[in-house]
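This is your field. Pick holes in the following sequence-structure pair:
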Amino acid sequence: MPGFNHVILVGHLGADPDASTTSKGENVTKMRIATQRYKSDECDWHQVVVFGSAAEACDRFLHKGAMVLVAGRIQYREHEGKWYTTIIANTVEFLKTDKKEADKSHTGKTPPKKGKPDEDDRPPF
């Protein structure tokens, strides 16, 4: 039986999306998503990459604090002896994009710093 690589995350954007285009002219948007651990105040940070028209929509409508559901696959890469995990999104659903609504659902707090990667641990892209 073949393996199955699928992940679903629901969380808040830790910063505004970062949009660009590939060398072939395809839209690409990178986002950092914070997900809260079950029955805990700790959170995990995920690097998410979106391509095509979904990338353009994410860049246009999402902002820091927006709540999203991301479905996709996990990709592992090595760069200069370090391993990085990235979620390649197939689907991004906007759950709360209105800044006032996102702030309410987040109780006005930023995600706990525990579990946040250091700048040196962020992928080189």
Q: What stands out?
A: Strands lie at 7-13, 18-21, 27-36, 43-51, 67-79, 82-96. The CA atoms of residues 4 and 25 lie 30 Å apart. The two ends are 34 Å apart (CA to CA).
